[in-house]
């Protein structure tokens, strides 16, 4: 029986060497787009877009990250940054992963302080809470 070729394009072998700005931008993208879980977007950016690691190397690094204490993707950022740029690379990768989402949260907190007394805003929050509760109940 003949095997059919894979439809999905395979990424090129890992060949890229990450610079400090590339590490920051790559992990910033992961941090900003990974809403609700960064695993799939992290794999996409690291393996397919940037080609910093092969699928096998990424799986190995992620496996190590899972057994270490802390968040898996933060552990991957530390190890990948260290691999390419040493301790500076680790710091830059973690900063890229965490700084921009934290800034977004700060901006949202400031907006919340201004909108807290607005009845339309409070009604929207109550509606969102009801919708979230319904989703939790609906998914079991």
From TrEMBL:
This is Chromate transporter. GO terms for cellular component: plasma membrane. InterPro entries: CHR_Transporter (IPR052518), Chromate_transpt (IPR003370). The keyword Transmembrane applies. Its main location: membrane. The chain crosses the membrane at residues 91-114. GO terms for molecular function: chromate transmembrane transporter activity. Belongs to the chromate ion transporter (CHR) (TC 2.A.51) family. It is a multi-pass membrane protein. Keywords: Cell membrane, Membrane, Transmembrane, Transmembrane helix. The lineage of its organism: Bacteria, Pseudomonadati, Pseudomonadota, Betaproteobacteria, Burkholderiales. It comes from Advenella kashmirensis (strain DSM 17095 / LMG 22695 / WT001). It comes from the Bacteria. It holds the Pfam family Chromate_transp. The keyword Ribonucleoprotein does not apply. Coiled coil: none annotated. It is found in: Cell membrane.
């Amino acid at each position: 029986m003949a095997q059919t070729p894979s439809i999905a394009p395979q990424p090129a072998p890992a060949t890229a060497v990450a610079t400090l700005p590339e590490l920051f931008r790559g992990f910033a993208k992961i941090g900003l787009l990974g809403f609700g879980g960064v695993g799939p977007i992290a794999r996409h950016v690291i393996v397919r877009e940037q080609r910093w690691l092969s699928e096998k190397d990424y799986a190995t690094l992620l496996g190590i990250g899972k057994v270490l204490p802390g968040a898996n993707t933060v552990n991957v950022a530390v190890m990948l940054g260290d691999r390419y740029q040493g301790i500076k690379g680790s710091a830059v990768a973690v900063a890229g992963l965490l700084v921009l989402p934290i800034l977004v949260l700060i901006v949202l907190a400031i907006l919340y302080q201004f909108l807290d007394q607005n009845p339309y805003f409070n009604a929207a929050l109550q509606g969102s809470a009801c919708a979230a509760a319904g989703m939790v109940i609906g998914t079991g």
